[in-house]
Amino acid sequence: MAGWRLKHTYTELPQLFYSDAAPTAVREARLVAFNRPLAAMLGLDSEALEGPEGAAIFAGNVLPQGARPIAQAYAGHQFGHFTGLGDGRAILLGEQITPSGGRMDIQLKGAGQTRFSRRGDGRAALGPMLREYIISEAMHALGIPTTRSLAVVTTGEPVYRETVLDGAVLTRVAASHIRVGTMQWAAAHDDQEAMRALADYTRARHYPELADAPQPHLALFDAILERQARLIARWQCVGFIHGVINTDNMALSGETIDYGPCAFMDTYDPATVFSSIDHGGRYAYGNQPPIAQWNLARLAEAMLPLFDPDMDRAEERATAALDRFPELFEQHWLNGMRSKLGLFTHEPDDKALVDDLLAWMQRRSADFTNTFRTLTIGRLAEDATNADPEFEGWLRQLEARRGRQPQSRAEAEDLMRRHNPAFISRNHRVEEALQAATTAGDFSVMERLLDVLATPYDHGRDLPMFSTSVPGGQPYRTFCGT
Ligand code: AMP
Ligand code: MG
Predict the structure, then answer these.
(1) Last residue of a domain, one of 278, 303, 332
(2) Is the pTM for the entire model greater than 0.70?
């Protein structure tokens, strides 16, 4: 018994939202990554799962006790264009009830074809699945809401992309996999009963505090918007670029979901794009807040009939709710930035102080993470802040600003240490780990990286290898996680 306690509330929703789907067995399942702390949180027995039984389960060759495998249906705006999608290569095994009473989706990504595979093979390659594992766990350690990664197995089968790659399956753990696109799916079918059921289900599962809200659907929308504003602010504060914030890749729980061509920004530039398919820069770093609002507008459109039977009034309500986004985002972002600068109090010129620093970083092509690290623990040898009179001038302003708050210097430093990571998943380190794993079957490089990323705020760890970007490196490119 490995501790499975799988439940299936999602399948109580109308049939429109899912389709039964069995994982397709793979030739040779081998466990190459396993997350013991996450297993413990889920109430799963690591020892049992690290053996052949676990490999068989995480490959989809054997179903865990109590599983009821399904593929979820959803639609989505991809780069602005609306399409019907659904889990084309992911299979939900069920909802694991955790020892603390939580409910977490257990999903196999890359587990074979489903009703929604269209022309896809239902499979995933090892590199992208390890990449999702590394970056989702790094995000979790940073304290940012995210889906998590329990295991990766190799399948012993090839997958055919531009080249032949090793197949793999990732076990993803999520508060749920309900997306903006799930509501769009119901709206596209013009099925108001299904929309209402999904809204009620989402509210009960993710926003139980709204149980008695007088206008429950509007309250749900407001709460989703609020969580997204906070989430995107958290991304901006660590320089995380998602890469494909299509509406199907935005979870209504408020977790970061679907790690494809994502990466962390090194030198500060709001126009930074890593994804090889994002030619127009739609999902560039600086565009993430407005794109989130755009996605929420699509959610509001889908939910309109739930807001008010009178469509004019429904639209008025939706618009009023959506208009709050920029300000909400800015509040969360500015508070995050204040913490990064060691500021507890609020002053009207704080935004200008932050903007001046960012403008300086952009002019000097300064490393985003390390500039804040410099403010936190002092300068690094190769630091762009060294002997820069403009930076010194800005620093004097910050010192003056700090002098006007009652908190001590030690308190400010402590705050900064908790908000400015020493370690992010640097692109060249991720590549190096993926290279070693995919070309030489050497997973030790990834394990070392995961160990560093597990304590991103540990400024006492002196690991320059993990805290410097490649100077003058080629522009980094990421490829879609297929
Ligand atoms: P993503 O880019 O991972 O967000 O996926 C977008 C859509 O394409 C989703 O509906 C996926 O299920 C589907 N998809 C991606 N890769 C594959 C694949 N190899 N086989 C089938 N469907 C896929
Ligand atoms: Mg997706």
Answers:
(1) 332
(2) yes
